[in-house]
């Protein structure tokens, strides 16, 4: 019998996993013991970290796009369709439109995060972001015109992709404006939902003095409730109102609705065992990357490591052996601290991060990693 | 024990810090004025985080129930 592994989502986690499995199960694929299908709702693979650099004119959105069929091993069946229903009882996926349903023996959900700006009144009209391709180009155009006033970066949604990216944005904006001789005419304020500047206390403790040093104002316990695009104000649930001239936000995030509809978890995040990455609610379903609710950051590095674990576990299952590989929470992250310096953190479920001293070398390491990302997606690195 | 009937419960047991506070804030965001949200958390940090935020946001922390392996916080949206 041929076992069918279906991966939904051709982003970082899904693509790395598809290539990992094609390599690992080479012999089984040849023998017809297993079939691998990767489903994505568009023909391109999108590498989101590029968007941080777009507003500063350092990258173009196209730098973060490649056709999936150039990245995915030929042994994988690539299907460009949007999944519209997950039936875990029948082990069947349905699609938008008239595309025929697909049955699976093992399902992996790697559907990532979706932005939900409409959850905050006024945000769609009042705020800019660099968490989407269109957002990053609109922000670039606005930043180029922005020579004086109040720039507010507000972290609204948590969890959100790349917990370091809001800090990186204000550090880069500070440096970029200084280099252009505009910093004296621009005030920068950073707002965060809890009592410190980052969810992780160690990273918060490291970042706060840098912000103070660079004259970046901070508002903590600030959970945006509404935005008035006419008056240019943002008001928090805690009752603080800030005037802004340019508002950049990290919008609320969610997973895709069909995950909740299938009873796999709330808000589109799949409840998983944080070590095995198996769904808690049903058998034969795994989740990885942003959509797997493990409590670790929503980061590409996490999706990459988790893909290796799920790849090993699925290979064991296909071979009829008990799977033993587990995920230890490993997270790796470069943090830009300006236009030509960066820090680096590495941590897991047991060990806390300790940010490295910012250096130019780490900044170039981050850029080099981003450029070699396409080898990672192909499963080569 | 309290006899407060929560309108919503957020079970953040197992979530690493600051997950529970973020989860509570998310639920209060969607709640109506007067609704009571019960947060279940097993991180000690919540014992300081939650009262601090409730005060800052002007929401009332009605009660804290302590159990062996977790605490339950009852917060009313103002
Ligand atoms: C500005 C920015 C900077 C970042 N910087 C970094 C960084 O420096 N380092 C780092 O590690 N991470 C970074 N990240 C985070 C990283 O990009 C994500 O965490 C990562 O992409 C998650 O991978 P994933 O596979 O879970 O989801 P994604 O890569 O988002 O892929 C999900 C895929 O699923 C598809 N999909 C969704 N629903 C369906 C459906 N119903 N049917 C079919 N297909 C579907 C989507 O179209 C998408 O292709 C950054 C993110 C942003 C926004």
UniProtKB/TrEMBL annotation, chain A:
<dbReference type="InterPro" id="IPR023753">
    <property type="entry name" value="FAD/NAD-binding_dom"/>
</dbReference>
<dbReference type="Pfam" id="PF07992">
    <property type="entry name" value="Pyr_redox_2"/>
</dbReference>
<dbReference type="InterPro" id="IPR052541">
    <property type="entry name" value="SQRD"/>
</dbReference>
<protein>
    <submittedName>
        <fullName>NAD(P)/FAD-dependent oxidoreductase</fullName>
    </submittedName>
</protein>
<feature type="domain" description="FAD/NAD(P)-binding">
    <location>
        <begin position="4"/>
        <end position="307"/>
    </location>
</feature>
<dbReference type="InterPro" id="IPR036188">
    <property type="entry name" value="FAD/NAD-bd_sf"/>
</dbReference>
Automatic annotation (TrEMBL), chain B:
<dbReference type="InterPro" id="IPR036868">
    <property type="entry name" value="TusA-like_sf"/>
</dbReference>
<dbReference type="Pfam" id="PF01206">
    <property type="entry name" value="TusA"/>
</dbReference>
<protein>
    <submittedName>
        <fullName>Sulfurtransferase TusA family protein</fullName>
    </submittedName>
</protein>
<feature type="domain" description="UPF0033">
    <location>
        <begin position="10"/>
        <end position="34"/>
    </location>
</feature>
<dbReference type="InterPro" id="IPR001455">
    <property type="entry name" value="TusA-like"/>
</dbReference>
């Amino acid at each position: 019998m041929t076992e069918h592994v279906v991966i939904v989502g051709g982003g970082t986690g899904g693509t790395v996993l598809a290539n990992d499995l094609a390599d690992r199960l080479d012999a089984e694929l040849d023998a017809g013991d297993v079939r691998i299908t990767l489903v994505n709702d568009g023909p391109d693979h999108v590498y989101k970290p590029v968007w941080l650099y777009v507003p500063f004119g350092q990258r173009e959105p196209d730098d973060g796009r490649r056709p999936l069929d150039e990245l995915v091993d030929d042994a994988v069946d690539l299907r460009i369709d949007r999944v519209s229903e997950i039936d875990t009882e029948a082990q069947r996926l349905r699609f938008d439109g008239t595309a025929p349903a697909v049955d699976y023996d093992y399902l992996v959900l790697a559907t990532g995060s979706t932005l939900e700006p409409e959850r905050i009144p006024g945000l769609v009209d009042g705020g800019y972001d660099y968490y989407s391709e269109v957002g990053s180009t609109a922000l670039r155009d606005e930043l180029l015109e922005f020579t004086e006033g109040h720039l507010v970066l507000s972290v609204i949604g948590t969890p959100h992709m790349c917990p370091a990216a809001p800090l990186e944005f204000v550090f880069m904006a500070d440096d970029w404006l200084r280099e252009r001789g505009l910093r004296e005419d621009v005030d920068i304020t950073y707002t965060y939902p809890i009592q410190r500047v980052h969810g992780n206390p160690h990273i918060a403790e490291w970042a706060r003095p840098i912000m103070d040093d660079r004259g970046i104002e901070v508002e903590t316990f600030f959970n945006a409730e509404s935005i008035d695009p006419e008056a240019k104000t943002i008001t928090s649930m805690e009752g603080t109102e800030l005037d802004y001239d340019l508002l950049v936000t990290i919008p609320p995030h969610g997973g895709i609705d069909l995950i909740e509809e299938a009873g796999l978890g709330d808000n589109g995040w799949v409840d998983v065992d944080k070590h095995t990455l198996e769904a808690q609610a049903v058998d034969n379903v795994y989740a990885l990357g942003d959509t797997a609710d493990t409590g670790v950051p929503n980061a590409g590095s996490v999706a990459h490591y988790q893909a290796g674990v799920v790849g090993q576990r699925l290979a064991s299952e296909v071979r009829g052996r008990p799977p033993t590989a587990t995920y230890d929470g490993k997270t790796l992250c470069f943090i830009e601290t300006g236009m030509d310096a960066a820090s680096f953190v590495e941590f897991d479920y047991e060990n806390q991060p300790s940010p490295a001293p910012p250096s130019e070398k780490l900044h170039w390491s981050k850029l080099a990693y981003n450029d070699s990302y396409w080898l990672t997606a192909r499963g080569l690195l | 024990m309290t006899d407060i009937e929560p309108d919503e419960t957020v079970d953040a047991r197992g979530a690493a810090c600051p997950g529970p506070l973020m989860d509570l804030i998310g639920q209060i965001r969607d709640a109506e004025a007067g609704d009571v949200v019960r947060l279940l958390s097993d991180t000690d940090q919540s014992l300081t985080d939650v009262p601090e935020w409730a005060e800052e946001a002007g929401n009332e922390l009605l009660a804290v129930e302590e159990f062996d392996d977790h605490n339950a916080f009852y917060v009313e949206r103002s």
